[in-house]
Amino acid sequence: MTAEAADENLEGTRPFARFEWMLAGRYLRSRRRETFISIIAGFSFIGIMLGVATLIIVMAVMNGFRGELLSKILGVNGHMLVQPIDSALDDYDAVAARIDNLDGVRFAMPFVEGQALVSGPVGALGGLVRGVREVDLRRVPLVTKTIRAGAFDDFDTSGGVAIGTRMAQQLGVAVGDRVTIVSPRGNITPLGTTPRVKGYPVVAIFEIGMSEYDSTFVFMPFEEAQLYFNQEEAATGIEVFVDDPDNVGPMRRAVEDGAGRPAFVTDWRQRNITFFSALEVERNVMFLILTLIVLVAALNIISGMTMLVKDKGHDIAILRTMGATRGAIMRVFVITGASIGVVGTVAGFILGFIVCLNVETIRQGISWLTRTEIFSPELYFLSRLPADMDTGETITVVVMALVLSLLATLYPAWRAARLDPVEALRYE
């Protein structure tokens, strides 16, 4: 044996040598009598691709949905709410100033709030009237930077209100038109409390992007709201906006102490715990359900590889008689099955990434083709479909698909390696 031949023989006996990759590639290419096996491999590839893509898309949409809701909720409502205990909050200016000076607090905003019926020329609906000062309202960019008509100039002295786009559409009003606000907490007379009815001009129309807020919120000048809700010289509460909304827990004690009076402090997580807990449960359940798609595709790999091993029994026997080890035979079929999983996973990742980048365009296209409203804002709160791919979750999905695909190849490959050449060639 020459030195070159010896080197080639040594190369051929190394794990994952060139001939193992060559055989695996040959088994992946179908011939006429192997069409059925190739169809199973094709379905396995499509299943893994769609499973990975679906998982990435759904998790990205749910992350985007949660993130958008969180930004809308925290963009309008404070991260913490300070409410009075025992007595009315008539020292709101002093309390807000003390809280403003605390470390980690962006600003504190006194407000007056009450529920009322808002009516216009073509309809009426319930609204949440919130009285705020112009200087504080301008600190809430989610409102001031989403003005679609009108302006907040001289809001304190305008004697008007600002409403959302959906409320304006349902009431049939525009900037300059008047809306009538009816509150059950009106004037106190000898015959009882009579509802308070008063008309206000619309000075601004905003679009926060969350249907519930755009159809419910009515912003009114602070002093006008005090008069309207019979809260002269007092505020309903103080909204506190902090630098780090995720770190509101440790700050609650500091805000309670900084208030300098008996007060009940709640944070955004306590006020929305049911809603965000439901979203988290739904997200985890969807992940488990959609993982079954990848699992089914992995089971298809097992069935396809098992049939391939049975079909290639004659070839395996000849390879064994020519000196191929059991390890080499096992690696050939591991490479064959794993290639389906790897290529399917990569294709699924690319497909999911492309869809996530264009998910809103796709939604609009489907809505246009079907003439229906996909993800109605009235049901899903948001006016657009968001998608936010989390790097850690995406890596988890990809790794999970690769591991399942690899595990699916082990048993068929082990069966191929255990094949007895004598039994396979007995009737040849």
TrEMBL record:
InterPro entries referenced in this protein's UniProt entry, alphabetically: ABC3_permease_C, Lipoprotein-release_system, LolCE_TM, MacB_PCD
Membrane topology: Multi-pass membrane protein
GO cellular component, one term: plasma membrane protein complex
One Pfam family hit: MacB_PCD
Main location: membrane
Domain MacB-like periplasmic core: 45-256
Subcellular location(s) of the protein: Cell membrane
Start and end residues of each ABC3 transporter permease C-terminal domain: 288-421
Membrane-traversing stretches: 36-62, 285-309, 329-355, 394-414
One GO biological process term: lipoprotein transport
Superkingdom classification of source: Bacteria
Family affiliation: Belongs to the ABC-4 integral membrane protein family. LolC/E subfamily.
NCBIfam families (UniProt xref): lolCE
The protein, known as: Lipoprotein-releasing ABC transporter permease subunit
